[in-house]
Amino acid sequence: MIIRKKPARPHALGEPILHENHKRPVTRREMLGAGLISAPAVLMAPAWLGALLRSGQANALSNDIQALAQNTCGLIQAGGGKSLPFICFDFAGGANLVGSEVLVGVNGGQSNFLSTAGYGKLGLPGNMVPSSSANISNALGLLWHSDGAILRGILSKATTAATAAGTNGAVICAMSQNDTGNNPHNPMYGIAKAQTTKGQLLELIGSQSTVSGGNSAAPMSLIDPTLQPTKISQPADATGLVDTGGASADPVIVAALESESRISYNGTGGVLANAGLAVYPGNATLDAKAKTQMQCQYVKSAYTTDAFGNPANLDPTQDPNITGTAGGAPIFTATDFKDGDVAKTATVMKLVLNGYAGAGTISMGGFDYHDSTRATGEQRNFKAGQMIGAVLEYAQRVKSPVMIYVFSDGSLSATSTPDTSTNGRGKLGWQGDNQSTASTFFLVYSPNGRPTPTNGAASQQIGYFSADGSVVSTSSPAGNSVTNLVWTVILNYMSMLGTAGNFATTFPMQTLGTAASGLMAFGQIV
Questions:
Q1: How confident is the model over 232-285, as pLDDT tens digits?
Q2: Distance (Å, rounded) from C-alpha 298 to C-alpha 251?
Q3: For labelling, which of 91, 163, 249, 470 has a CA lying 20 to 30 Å from the CA of 411?
Q4: Cα–Cα distance between 136 and 130 in angstroms, integer?
Q5: DSSP readout, 4-69?
Q6: Rounded Cα distance, 120 and 139, in Å
Q7: Residue 132: phi, psi to the nearest 5?
Q8: pLDDT value at 516 more than 50
Q9: Segment 327-355, tens digit of pLDDT
């Protein structure tokens, strides 16, 4: 019997991708990978936060409440601690991130090139391999294929010369499973623990209502159950953090909330202690911790109302650095916000880069694009690049450093047939999942200028590929361990924060061991 297959065709942006050799999508993760649903933005925060936030105009907190906010509840940062905002992009479905995007090489670095066949496996025909300097771009410091779709997308948004000039990055050669949410890729809990300055409103933000806040899982050893998700899918959800729906904003509100705080805490333990009541009878440690948490709930309400009384301050659509011309052309227009990826990216970057949140995950779907064309993947990667470029450009405009980490669940390999369509750009079509070609990368922007690698260009590739286009699993601790990959990312974050010396004590369960000293791409930048 002759089985006739439908001819390969590209899929438009937003069009679902269903494969004959994949089972029908059933779970939310599978639907996200196929592009059947989008990923709404989610903010990770204690569940009680939404009930406590109030609106009001600025009215300085009383001295006793300020002292509680700073010394007991940790809401006001003392000493002006340094911060390195962190945003990661989680591409569901197994995206191509290296070879025909970020360059990878054999042992020695990005410019120690693979064979022609190796780059062919990664989607490049012979006339596009990076052995020709015309096919290499160093616009972002980290070497990229000059026609990489993600690079083109980044540069379409990072339009200010200072943005690219202040950017650098590194690639981590590391395998991961295809099309699964079981990869413990997400580093957010570790980043939160490593940060020396916390978000003013929230610890972590993410794009899905999962334990990790994204499509991929977080390592079990890092999960902190006190960070619970609060959903945000549009700018209005961010402004809702400090908006009670039009309640009168005057100093009386702040004063009333301060009174509630004093009722719960009067300097000697509050009402519960004075009445001899115990939350945890027989366990003094848990009892004190619970009472402090209850007291801080009231203090947080007063503090948030006083400090963030104007919801417009959290609205990306009203930020002149995003939708206006304060930094040049708008990063996003009002029309752009009709796109869900734009809405969540703008909201997350607004909150993180202004210090309202410490770190965030942005999940994007539809990256399971091996339909034997190249056009489908090019369009999706270009849009992903635009979202990354928007974060970089916004960081430059608000003069904030940022680390952007990009990963996906697995990867794919190419056919031997070029896609000569306009969107295919003459590159090889994607034909199937292949975890051995998976890798991740991070970019870092500093307003003080392009960060300098610790060991020259060699330190910008952690691990390496074989000449035939596969990750060498023993080339670094991260090569064949997604958990070690997460530790490597956290270590690099702490190195740029200037706290790498505390890595082993902050994370005694880390598994990098003595290899950690050779895995840091950059030194302190903040």
A1: 767 887 887 776 554 444 455 556 566 655 655 544 445 444 445 565 677 777
A2: 16
A3: 163
A4: 6
A5: PPPPP----TT-----TTSPPP-SHHHHHHHTSS----EEE--TTHHHH-------PPPHHHHHII
A6: 24
A7: -90, 125
A8: yes
A9: 889 999 999 999 999 999 999 999 999 99
Q: Which residues sit opposite 166 in a β-bridge?
A: none
SS3 140: strand
- Give the C-alpha distances (Å, rounded to integers) separating 418 from 14, 431, 524: 23, 12, 43
What CA–CA distance (Å, rounded) separates 80 from 84? Answer: 13
Instruction: Tell me what pLDDT residue 28 has.
Output: 59
Q: What is the pLDDT of residues 375-389, one digit of tens each?
A: 999 999 999 999 999
The tens digit of pLDDT for each residue in 43-80 reads 444 443 443 333 333 446 677 777 777 777 766 555 45
Domain ranges of the chain: 28-44+79-228+332-518
* Residue pair 469/117 in contact by the 8 Å Cβ criterion: yes
Average pLDDT, the chain: 85
Q: Is the dihedral of CA 195, 201, 203, 205 positive or negative?
A: negative
3-class SS string, 229-276? EEECCCHHHHHHHHCCCCCCCCHHHHHHHHHHHHHHCCCCCHHHHHCC
The label of the residue with tokens 């003094």 reads 284
Is 293 buried (19+), middle (13-18) or exposed (0-12) by CB count in 10 A?
Answer: middle
- Bridge partner list, 457: 455
CA distances from 239 to 53, 174, 232, 233, 266 (A): 11, 39, 10, 12, 32
